[in-house]
Amino acid sequence: MSLFSKLFGGGKPKPEPEAETETYEGFRITPAPQTDKEGFRVAARIEKEIDGEVKVHQLVRADTLRSLDEAQEFSLRKAKQLIDQQGERIFR
């Protein structure tokens, strides 16, 4: 990174701190809201080990919230809702 980038705040944006992973119905959910011009976009990573292989589904919604804490909470809620509705089918 150049001196000017350091002085004037250029460069890559700082990643958001990762929320704690929660286990729900055998799935691991990690809220991962994405920074957006409107605030934080609702997103989460859903994982489950099936037949010895870890399957991953990236949940990303159009919803945005102003607060990171609210976005993490809402992301967790939406991931649980998706698991309740689709179960392991989310990995297809």
TrEMBL record:
InterPro entries in alphabetical order: Transcription_activator_HlyU (IPR018772)
Region (Disordered): 1-33
Superkingdom per UniProt: Bacteria
Identification of the protein by name: Transcriptional activator HlyU
Native species: Roseovarius bejariae
Taxonomic lineage: Bacteria, Pseudomonadati, Pseudomonadota, Alphaproteobacteria, Rhodobacterales
